[in-house]
Structure formats: C-alpha cells, structure tokens
Amino acid sequence: MQTIIQKIDADQFEMKELDQAANILKAGGLVAFPTETVYGLGADALDAAAAAKIYEAKGRPSDNPLIVHIASVNDMAAIAIEIPQEAYQLAEAFWPGPLTMILKKKECVPYGTTGGLDTVAIRLPENKIARELIAHSGVFVAAPSANTSGKPSPTKAEHVKVDLDGKIDMIIDGGKAILGLESTIIDLTGKIPVILRPGFITQKMLENIIGRVEVDPYILGKKQNENLVPKAPGMKYRHYAPTGSLTIYEGDTQAVIDAVNLVAQEKILCGKVVGIIATDETKIFYKYGIVKTIGTRKEEASIAAGLYDILREFDKLKAEYIYTESFADNRLGQAIMNRLLKAAGYHIVKVTK
Ligand code: TXA
Ligand code: MG
Asked: Most buried one in 73, 141, 178, 267, CB count within 10 A?
C-alpha cells in the first residue's frame, strides 16, 4: 500500500484540505493525525472491520482497547450510557484536552474497538486538525498512538512514517505534538474515580473539580509487581521502549554523573554505541558517549515533550546502551517517570554520594 503523506499547517488550514482524510475514514481506512499529546492512528470506531485494521498495522494485542475520539461533548452520549455527573464536570473543565474518560459503552460500540470490554475510553482532543478531521468525517475516531506496538509513541509525522509507512492509507503531517505524552486516563465506572494512566491532567487538578480521585496502584509501583494487574490493559505491555537497553540512574546529581561517566566509558571500551540522556543543566558534565539533552529541569513540560523524540533519536543512532537521569515523581513528573520506567523495563540504578 502506498501511504499518502499530506502536510497541513495547524495554524492556518481550510476544511477542504481534510476532504481526502475524512473520506478515507468514512470508507473504513486508516489515517494517522496529530493530536496535542502524540500522533494517533485513526479509524471509524463503530466499524469493527476498520478497527481491526488498526491492530493489524500496529501489531497490537487484541485485548488492548482503543480510545474513541469525539469532536463535541454532546457526542459522549452517543457512545456511552449511565454517564455520571462527574464526566460532564470534567469535560467542562478539561475538554478539549489531554484527558480520556472511561465510561460504560453503548451497544453500538463494537467489542473490536473496546478489546472485549463493556466500557469505552473517550477523548475530545484539543489539536485543531484532529478535531476538525473528526467533525468533517462524521465518524467517531478510534485512535491509539500511531506507533508500532511497544515502540515509543510518535510526536512527529516522521516517527509515524518510520513505523507505519506502507501499512496505512495516509499520514497527516501537522507538525510536532506539543505535549509529547499520552492523555491522562480516568475510569469513572466505579464508586471512586481512578486514574489508570498519569498525564498532564494531574490527580490534584481532577480532585479540584470532582473531589476524591484514586490512582491505580499499578502505575505508582517502581517495580512491576506480579500481583498487581493494571486496569488499563495497555499498561501491562512493555512500552515506549527504544531498541537499545535503557537504564535510569537515580540519586544525587553529581553521583549520577560520575556513575554514568564510569559505565559509559566501560561500554565504549568494549566497542559499544552509548547514548546519554542529559538535561540542559548537566549536558556539559558527561564525558563519554553521544550526549543529548531531553529538556530543562526548570520546565518539566520540556522534558515531557522531548522524551519520545530522544528515545527515537537514539534508535536512529543505533545506540546499544542508553543511560538517563531520573526525574521527580510528582505532578507531571509522575507521568514522565511512568513512561521512562516502562521504557527501561523498570531497570533503575540508585547511586549514593
Ligand atoms: O493521548 C492519547 O490518549 C493518545 C492520542 C492519540 O489520543 N492515544 C493513546 O492511545 O495513547 P493508546 O491506545 O496508545 O493508549 C490507550 C490506553 C491503553 O493503555 C488502553 O489499555 C487504555 O487506554 N484503554 C482504552 N480503553 C479502555 C477501557 N475501556 N478500559 C480501560 N483502559 C482502556
Ligand atoms: Mg500507545
């Protein structure tokens, strides 16, 4: 299959530029498109055959449900039932934006979209191309991240191309995904709302609107505990991983730098390609390997935005060993560390002074 690549300027475009993409979606095809979090791989959510194509293209396990993207809050009632008041309050506060809500599904949503579950994940994205595309196509758009299953999520159209060229009908290149980490997922089907995946919308922000919110203990674990099963099926799979072996170094900054310099030098002496994930503040102190900065510690959002891109950069450079600094585990840091730990297969080294 020849994948069409279409550039669209997110700040200035006309509806007719989305005609072809909308027609592909209507006809049951696959279109990758930008959102504010990461690029999504879209298909008609109510068409089981179209949704099946997503699993095929990504190599995604069939029990891992898809998020259904809508263009207006009113659409929620078209695919969900028994919608609690909290859902409307959260929609009012955070939509359009990086929040996904789990609700009970309506019969019209096929099990092929929900991975066999009676619930459905719903999100109204902020990105203008995404929203206009959904509205223009007239279908609800099931869209996981547009990467090969297990790889880092795509934050640029070129990332999508590397993974899915020739496997999907179209890629809309709308520039960089500005946030760079997937949406926060909150499950509203139980007595107490539970965060299943951390993101930009934090527990505190959610609690400010609807009161008590819990966090699925699975995502707080620094080690994957065999006895904990995540409520979002996707969270159990190895994820976000670069090809090289990634290790996180945690502790006093100087001690981390010293330890990384030592291990990097050892690997290089053995002829290995080594990548270092530094920050603007520490970059100059690393002496060995290919040193790249992920962002500045003064602005957590810059680190979130740079994470997947830097992992993919090291794939391109064929890094066999990648060493990264660790980040604070609160607020947005919780989302960053959640992804980094999974990318590293929970391989973390604690260093002391
Ligand atoms: O920011 C995002 O959410 C991006 C963009 C494209 O919107 N999408 C995304 O989709 O990250 P994906 O498929 O990579 O992640 C979806 C996650 C998976 O962990 C999946 O298990 C969970 O959402 N999920 C989907 N439906 C669910 C449901 N009914 N119950 C529990 N978890 C669900
Ligand atoms: Mg994903």
From this structure: 141
